[in-house]
Amino acid sequence: MMASVLVLSLNPALDLSVGLERLTPGRVNRTRETHLEAAGKGVNVARVLVALGHRVTLSGFLGSDNDGVFRRAFETLGVEDACLRVPGETRTNVKLAEDDGRVTDINGPGVVIDAEAWQRLIGELERRLTASTGRPGRW
Asked: Which residues form a coiled coil (predicted)?
């Protein structure tokens, strides 16, 4: 039986993976390949749940300045986008993968969430959960 699942993603990320022969700090390094992907633990959980056949709604926060990669990923995956947009950019994490297997991760800071945005998210989650159970506060 297919379940409807609400996934909460509070600190999603754009993952930029960079393949290169060898990283030489302090020098210009040429990449072999790059790949940009919507990610973060909640997004990855949603991706797996969809692959297992579940209906997924993803909620949380996205920076409004760079949400396009997420919108396209959610559409492609078939995930309902219930994320609240906040001013700024969703964090970007960079993964430098060298041919010898060494990997360097550089993780960016998350978008700043103010009290009003938190209250909007709580209200949205309460609305969705109450609608799904028919009973306020009983999820």
From this structure: none
Token duo for residue 69: 């990669």
Is residue 136 assigned to a domain?
Answer: no
Give the domain extent around 37.
4-129
pTM above 0.85, yes or no: yes
Amino acid at 112: V
**Strand runs labelled E in 40-120:** 55-63, 80-81, 84-86, 91-98, 103-107
Asked whether residue 138 is domain-assigned, the answer is no
**Phi, psi dihedral angles at 15 (to 5 degrees):** -100, 115
CATH number of the domain that 124 lies in?
Answer: 3.40.1190.20
Phi, psi angle pair for 98, to nearest 5°? -90, 155
Given CA atoms 62, 65, 69, 74 in this order, what sign does their dihedral have? positive
Q: How far is CA 37 from the centre of its chain?
A: 9
Cα three-residue angle 33-36-37, rounded to 5 degrees: 135
Domain count, the chain: 1
